[in-house]
């Protein structure tokens, strides 16, 4: 079991994990958020959301200035000791990714965020128009809706790979980013920047969270809504917990399981 007195770092997905899948509320996790703040346990967001979405959310949660991972690991935001911004160097520019996808539009049927309006994204996700606008301020990945068949999807993945791009599945969309990107790689890169590696506890609910949950010391697989299960490669089952509840209730359940409260 872990203690709040340990050198602990909590790394969390947002949608369907800390945030309710339908309402985007985190109120069911408020008690644990307060405990983490009281004991100065850093909370690192690792999400498919954009930086434009995460920064105001950090402020609401009272964790502004904390490093975070955006766009499924395609972008990492933190500052060095001099206060200068640092970003991972493997990311592809958003405009470059969109241009690559444009070249494939005549072969495959899909719609990316670059082609959606704010209202269309709001209708799909349940986000407000303002939040939908923030979701379209992308830096290093494209989110898309696949509209073609499974056979074409395999060819699409191959075409992306030939261009140095990969696909990962989120809760609502497929995400296109540079090959080698992902939540697991991003977490490892972030931890390598720290002077000393803390004990890490990760929480997530979707297939795109699996790489992150494989690299943390302790993993909470929150009950999700995806048709595809979260499949982990790790074999230390005693360090993995599957929750009975969804969203922030499951998030709190996972912390209850692993962390001994004072």
From TrEMBL:
InterPro entries: HAD-like_sf (IPR036412), HAD-SF-IIB-MPGP (IPR006381), HAD-SF_hydro_IIB (IPR006379), HAD_sf (IPR023214). GO terms for molecular function: magnesium ion binding; mannosyl-3-phosphoglycerate phosphatase activity. The keyword Magnesium applies. Keywords: Hydrolase, Magnesium, Metal-binding. The keyword Magnesium applies. It is an enzyme of class 3 (hydrolase). GO terms for cellular component: cytosol. Pfam families: Hydrolase_3. GO terms for biological process: mannosylglycerate biosynthetic process. Gene3D superfamilies: HAD superfamily/HAD-like, Putative mannosyl-3-phosphoglycerate phosphatase, domain 2. Its EC number is 3.1.3.70. PANTHER family: HAD SUPERFAMILY HYDROLASE-LIKE, TYPE 3, PHOSPHOSERINE PHOSPHATASE. This is Putative mannosyl-3-phosphoglycerate phosphatase. It comes from Duffyella gerundensis. The lineage of its organism: Bacteria, Pseudomonadati, Pseudomonadota, Gammaproteobacteria, Enterobacterales.
């Amino acid at each position: 079991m872990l203690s709040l007195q340990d050198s602990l770092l909590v790394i969390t997905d947002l949608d369907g994990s800390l945030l309710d899948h339908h309402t985007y509320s985190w109120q069911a996790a408020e008690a644990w958020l307060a405990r983490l703040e009281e004991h100065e346990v850093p909370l690192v967001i690792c999400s498919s959301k954009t930086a434009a979405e995460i920064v105001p959310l950090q402020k609401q949660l009272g964790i502004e200035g904390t490093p975070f991972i955006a766009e499924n690991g395609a972008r990492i935001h933190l500052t060095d000791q001099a206060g200068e911004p640092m970003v991972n160097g493997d990311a592809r520019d958003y405009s470059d990714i969109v241009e690559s996808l444009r070249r494939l539009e005549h072969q495959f049927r899909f719609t990316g965020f670059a082609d959606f309006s704010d209202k269309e994204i709001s209708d799909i996700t349940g986000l407000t128009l303002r939040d939908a606008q923030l979701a379209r301020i992308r830096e290093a990945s494209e989110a898309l809706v696949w509209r073609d068949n499974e056979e074409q999807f395999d060819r699409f993945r191959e075409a992306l790979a030939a261009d140095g791009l990969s696909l990962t599945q989120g809760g609502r969309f497929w995400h296109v980013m540079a090959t080698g990107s992902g939540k697991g790689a991003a977490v490892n890169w972030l931890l390598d920047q720290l002077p000393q590696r803390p004990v890490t506890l990760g929480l997530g609910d979707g297939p795109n969270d699996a790489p992150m949950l494989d690299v943390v010391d302790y993993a909470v697989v929150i009950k999700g809504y995806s048709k595809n299960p979260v499949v982990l490669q790790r074999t230390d089952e005693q360090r993995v917990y599957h929750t009975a509840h969804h969203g922030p209730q499951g998030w709190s359940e996972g912390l209850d399981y692993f962390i001994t409260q004072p």
